[in-house]
Amino acid sequence: MFVSLKRIIRSGWSNFRRQTALSFATVSIMVMTIFLITSLFLFQGTTNFLISLLEGRVDISVYFKKDIAEDDILRVKEELSQSPEVKNVEYISREDALARFIEKHKEDLVILESLAEVGANPFLASLNIKAFQASQYDAISDFFSQDPYQELVERIDYFQNKQIIERIFKISTSVKFAGSLLGLILGLIAVLVAFNTIRLTIYSSREEISIMRLVGASNWFIRGPFIVQGIIVGAISTLLTLIIFFLILFFANERVEAFLPNFSPLGYFLNNFFIILFIQLAAGIGLGIISSLIAIRKYLKV
Known about the structure:
- The protein contains eleven helices and four strands.
- It has a four-stranded antiparallel sheet.
- Helix 2 packs antiparallel against helix 7, helix 2 packs across helix 9 and helix 7 packs across helix 11.
């Protein structure tokens, strides 16, 4: 058994080295295939970052009546924090709201003078609420429409921002769907191209396969070298794709960070290195083996 396995591995490596032009073409196509699949993974990560960034800019503020005690507002904050839709809740007191307003408009003397003429603090205490997803703000708004919270609230700015929030939700949903659809289409194209390239490689060895079949070689002994060849092609293609991808991200990282602050494509690549490596090996070696098995099947019939 071990002797047969050794012969199969040696034969597979010999076929790979002997068919230089076809091996080079197969590796090139496989590199492009794996590169495309890896790019789709990175595209999905970038898309998720952009959606999170977009949704992170959306929030709602709930303003409480002036006579509501701070302890009551903090109690509401605690109850709201336990809601599964709520990502973060920030309490802003009347004094904090006034201080933020002054800091924001410290260069605008007209506004500051107008504020001074008002005399008393005109701002209300509020809760600034962020949800995990834009679609969850409806549920948070409904939370304050119930008793006893309804009597505490002066106003909620959700209704002014509802159209913007709904638009962001539609955009994020559309981007996710378009990304998934594009990934599926391009992935299928890449698989078909790689499959046909490997089939061409096996086609060039059809006479050798026929002779082996006629002299009594078993199906697995005939399949073995092509499976080994597929594994070799997948492994070499994965290594080359990793090197190419790393170099591209290394040189493009600063430009992408300038365009998308707080997102590093190289950092994302390194943080998900083992996931990417697994995807590339599964795509390269898996596609090489499966394509070889399918393509050689018709040549095994006497």
